[in-house]
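=== RUN LOG ===
request id: a7f3
mode: sequence -> structure
chains: 1
length: 215
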Amino acid sequence: MVLSSPLPAPSCSPCTGESETKRQQILTGASAVFAEHGYEGASMSAIARQAAVSKGTLYNYFTNKADLFAAFVEQCCREKLPVALAPVQENSPARETLTAVARAMVCLITQPDSLMLYRIIVSEAPRFPHLGAVFWENGPRVAIATLAKWIREQEALGTLQTEDPVFAAEQFFALCQTRIAHLRRFNLNPENSAEEEEKVIQAAVRVFMAAYGTE
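=== RESULT ===
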């Protein structure tokens, strides 16, 4: 996948056996340092200490902090997005599929790791625009493209009708972020959280189907 902002390609020694274990050890350490200090405040020295590796070992796997952060974002998205988007691969009715996707997305975007990553991107992107590019290319863009493809398939079946499947996909994910996600991002916990989440999920599907469903 080509990033809209040039970044150094991730470099690592052959990712098998002990090498992959060491790489994961570094990414785990980086996650803790990024969470505590943000992107700008995180140093390669601090990441090496947290990961319990030498700076030489760290640079054997990642050429610089931008490279390391890109790998961290890619790993987060690679691990989490396929699970959240899995319902579109099932041959279920449109409303049922959208409900499953909405439930998975609400769960995903309110997880501590996701909230931490979102806060870093928002706070640091004005000074480090490439952070937003890395996150967008590996997260939202992939999710939008995947759902848009499913929407096109539903249009061929006659269950949905949109003028722009990509825009419709963006709208659906925006609906999934109503209330719950915003409160959590501001470190506020809504009352009756489970009930509120279900309300957001059902409303997102209802509004989307009212706009684009052919039933």
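=== NOTES ===
Residues 1-15 have pLDDT under 50 and may be disordered.
The chain has eleven helices and no strands.
=== END ===
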